[in-house]
Amino acid sequence: MLARKNILLIIGGGIAAYKTLELIRLLRKQNAQVVPVMTSAAAEFVTPMSVSALAGAPVRAALFDLEDEAEMGHIQLTRAADLVVIAPATADLMAKMAHGLADDMASALLLARNKPVLLAPAMNVSMWENAATRRNVATLRADGCTIVGPDDGEMACGEFGPGRMAEPAEILAAVQAALAEKALGGKRVLITSGPTHEPIDPVRYIANRSSGLQGGELARAFLRQGAEVVFITGPATAALPEGAKVVEVETALQMAAAVDAAGTVDVAIFAAAVADWRVASARDGKIKKEAGKALPELDLVENPDILRSVSQRQKGRPRLVIGFAAETDNVLENATKKRRRKGCDWILANDVGGERPVMGGLDNQIVLITKNGAETWPWMSKAELADALAAKVTEALA
């Protein structure tokens, strides 16, 4: 996928620089050409010899090297690159980029660049959350830079929170997305995700175990293909997809309204685990448990059927409407009936009652049901499933 692509890799000075060695290996495995540049601080964490050996190219570090700079070598590096990747992108490097400073090889390259830039930030949680860093990040995003991460986790300093550099595989995926042909450019995709919370009283609600991970991965997959994504999510625990238009809701009624408000789309994918019922009249105050009193009765009413409503639109129906069917028994039979009943084009059926967790888990296994029959997909990560579905949709829209 990255054959003949030229990656200009700038390594900043942080403990996460050790991960960049694995990133280089992954890029080279994809047949990319990697041209490494190291800041002086980066050499305190990983050796230029290690970087050069893995990249198969000499490390550039000195702005005033007489041999390399005789013909303005740092300018030529940016002209030859398809993509500039900064990993780790330290607070210092990002500040220099945001303010146009160029006092070393890395910052001069970044100021002279004419190619897209992908940053993988890594720093202490307080540095990441500092107002100055947030301003710099906003500036870089506005300048067109793509940012992957940072992730939450334990820091080398012992603190915990956002600031860990994204894992090499995640950065590789972002590189692939940045350089991929945008097969769905100009298409608009709506994705619902996560659970809904249907209030019983101010402290209790009806919900389910959906984490929203599959929906988020679907959004990222379609964004990588160049689609405009409207992402409508209930109160999920998974991270929101950057680059999508995110609409956060809580209840099924709110989700239905957000879907209607989204307007015309080419594809609608309903991955949300919407509660089938809600309490007709949620209590204003907390329901008290009192000895000797009868259990409270909950008057349940059906929530709107969002999938069926969109599938059966007379005007403005998406070209492709895709639903999910979470089943615990007779998966194929029940999901096939659901597709016919709802009127959608495809149903992705999965068994959520097995020993291997799906809802809240990292992997998924589905049966794709269309009017032409059923196709069983193997177990795979939810990210891989999302890419596979995006490819299938691309084929269907061609």
Proportion of residues in helical segments: 25-40%
Give the overall average pLDDT. 89
Global Rg:
25 Å
In CATH, the architecture of the largest domain is 3-Layer(aba) Sandwich
- The percent range for strand residues is 15-25%
Structural class: alpha/beta
Strand tally is 21
The span between the termini is 21 Å
State the helix count: 13
Describe this protein with a few key phrases.
single chain, 398 residues, alpha/beta, Rossmann fold, 2 domains, eight-stranded mixed β-sheet, five-stranded parallel β-sheet, globular
What does the model show?
This protein has two domains: 174 residues, Rossmann fold, CATH 3.40.50; 210 residues, CoaB-like (Rossmann fold), CATH 3.40.50.10300. The strands form six sheets. The protein has an eight-stranded mixed sheet with strand order 12-11-8-13-16-17-19-20, with helices on both faces. Strands 2-1-3-4-5 form a five-stranded parallel sheet, with helices on both faces. Strands 6-7 form a two-stranded antiparallel ribbon. The chain has 398 residues and is α/β, with parallel strands linked by helices. It is 33% helix and 24% strand.
